[in-house]
Structure formats: structure tokens, C-alpha cells
Amino acid sequence: MMPTLSHPPSSQPTHMVQASNTVPRSQEIDHHTFQQSTLTTKRWLTIIIFLSAVSVATVVLCLQFGTQYIGLGEMFGIIWRTITSFPGTADSDVTATILMQVRLPRVLLGFLAGASLAAIGVTLQALLRNALADPYVLGVSSGAALGVSVAVLFGVGTTILSVSALPLCGFLGSLMALAVIYRMAVSYDRLPIHSVLLAGVILNAIFSALIMFITSILDPNRSFGMMAWLMGSLTAPALPALSVFSLYVLLGLFLLLRHVGVLNLMAFGEDAARSLGIDTERVKRNLLLLSALMTGAVVSFSGMIGFIGMVIPHAVRMVFGADHRLLMPASVLIGGAFLTVADTLARTYAAPSELPVGIVTALAGGPFFVYLLVWRKDRMS
């Protein structure tokens, strides 16, 4: 998965060098930190290995904390017993049950959801050349939320093959929204970016109104649960559902990482990318579809968690530069670690109650982003 970074890179060597030298800079996204020409294999490896180590340490640390603290030795002992035991032999110890059936699935879900949201944010900001683009700008998230709301309204709280039906309803809602957006935006086999944005904003408004209407007519208990889910919730999923979700988003992340070279060109504008031989219509259609499908899956499992998709790519860009060969994998690792930490705070701060994780991401990440803005301003001055 590591990109080729020799100079010039073998994937799109000439294109990238030409783009950085001849194409006017985007007015929407600040490219003054575009460090493509200085990105060496050594620098890429150093940063990615460091961030990978931080991510692993974050996951291990978050597995220890919750309503019950689990020491490092005990935790690895439980994991080792689980791995070496016969298949289907469950550890009857209460601590083992908490770790393997509740905390581990939840931490993995949080990491994958955060990584996916950050990667989608990087993709959309490059495609739309808009610094405010995030995974929810397409309106697909509202479609997923509407699907879950309708399911709750009609009492679809049952399970299908031991898996809750609500994520499935959310995903169907996101597919419905994606079909409507595509139908509204496509024109003469082209997919204008401004039409996609406009269709997404309109559908967001309509779907949000319908969600609020459904929430208002639910009984107080279900209405409260619905609002908590809309603000972000990482309830530990069942193992079959987590397995499907993991394979799905990992495939999506792999495909997004394969497009980092093209995203470097698209960030300079469609005309520039087209002049360098990129089929921009195909790239837009494929990446928007992939982003929408991933967003629908993430929202179906975790609710509406804002902030990560828009701010994490900005923060990473400020620190490491705007070259997508580094920006994309770094955002994936930092986004996953960030949401994992935020969820740990959400489930421990007011234990045994839980805070909506969307509130924690905004309160914990907002001040840090403000600090980065001030730091960058001082550096530039």
C-alpha cells in the first residue's frame, strides 16, 4: 500500500511535477504547504511508522479503560487465552467477557469509523476543492439517518441472523439518498461538482426536517434514544456485523489510498487534471460513489459523528503538508486514533452513563484545531 516516492515517482511522475510547476494554485484550498517535491521515501516511512505506532498504542491504552480498569498484563493474558483456546470455547471470566465481547469490538469500530471519515474528508476536499467539504456534504449521511429513523418509527428493532436490523436500514437509506443525488446532479453523462453539492445540500435539508418530524412524534424514551444516536453512538456491534463492516470499510480505504496520485492532480482543478490525461468524469463518479457508500456504512453503525471528516484533514495538512500520498494515510491513522480516544472519554467520563461521542469530538478536537490555526499563523508571520 505504500506509494512509490522515488523522484520522480513512478506512478504519475511527470504529471505531478508538471502540476506543481505550471498549474495555478487553488483559491479554495490553501496549497502553500504543498510539499510534494520534498516528500521522500524516508520521510514518508518515518512519519507513517511513527503514526502507526501511536495508533497501536492508542488502541491498547483505550482497551484498558472503561467502567472497569483492565491492567496491561491481564489484558494480554485474556487475548492470548482467547487466541489459543479451542474455537467456540468462551472464557467465562467477567473481565474477559467485558474485554473481548464489549470493549474490543467497540474500540475497533471507533478506529475504523474515524479512519474512514477522515479518508472521505480528504477525498471530498480534493475533488470539490472546498476546504469545508466533509463526508456529510453529499447528503448521504442524512439518508442513512432517515432510514434508521423510519425503522425506529415502525418498530424495526428486531435482529436479522443475530444482527440488528437498524444498520441495514441506515445503509438502505444512504443508497436511496445516493440514487436521488445522482439523478438530480447528472447532466448529459457528466457529473458537475456544483450540482452534486447543491443536490446534497437540498437533500440534507429535506431529510433533516423529516428526521426531526419523526423524532417529535416518537414517545419520549425512543425520542431520547434517537437523539443520542444522531449525536454519535459507538455501541459495541455483534461480531458478524463488525466483520462485515470491517471488510467493507477496509476495502474502501484501500481503494481511496490507490487514488492519492490522482487526488494530487484533481486538487489543482478539473481542467488541469484533464490536460494531464486524467479522465476526470470517471474519477469523480467513482470516488464520489465510493465516498457515499462508505459514509452510509459508517453512519449506519456510529450515527452522525461530525468534526472528524472536515477538521482532521485540515490539521494533518497543516503539519505534514498537502501531498495526498502522505496526507491520506496520515489522516487515516490520526482520524482512527482520535475517534478511539474520544469514544473512551465518552464512555468513562460520566460512567456508567455515556456521553454522545459527537459532543466529545467537537469539544476535544475544536480547541486543538484552534491551537493549530494560531500556531500556523505565527509560523507564517
The first-to-last residue Cα distance is 37 Å
Global Rg = 21 Å
Helical fraction equals over 70%
Order of helices and strands: HHHHHEEHHHHHHHHHH
Structural class: mainly alpha
Largest sheet: 2 strands, antiparallel
Q: Note the total helix count.
A: 15
Shape descriptor reads globular
Mean of residue pLDDT values: 80
Q: What is the strand arrangement across the widest sheet?
A: 1-2
Strand proportion, as a percent range, falls in under 5%
* Uncertain spans: 1-30
The total count of strands amounts to 2
Layout of secondary structure:
Blueprint: H1 13-22, H2 41-64, H3 72-84, H4 94-128, H5 140-153, E1 159-160, E2 163-164, H6 165-185, H7 193-217, H8 220-230, H9 239-257, H10 260-266, H11 270-275, H12 280-302, H13 308-320, H14 324-348, H15 357-380
Antiparallel strand pairs: 1-2
Helix pairs in contact: 2-4, 2-14, 3-4, 4-9, 4-12, 4-13, 4-14, 5-6, 5-7, 5-12, 6-7, 6-12, 9-12, 13-14, 13-15, 14-15
Relevant terms:
381 residues, disordered N terminus, two-stranded antiparallel sheet, mainly alpha
Fold and architecture overview:
By secondary structure, this protein is mainly alpha-helical. It is built from 15 helices and 2 strands. A two-stranded antiparallel sheet has the order 1-2. A hairpin with a 2-residue loop joins strand 1 (159-160) and strand 2. Helix 13 runs parallel beside helix 15. The longest helix is centred in the first third of the chain and has 35 residues, at 94-128. The radius of gyration is 21 Å and the shape is globular. Residues 1-30 have low confidence and may be disordered.
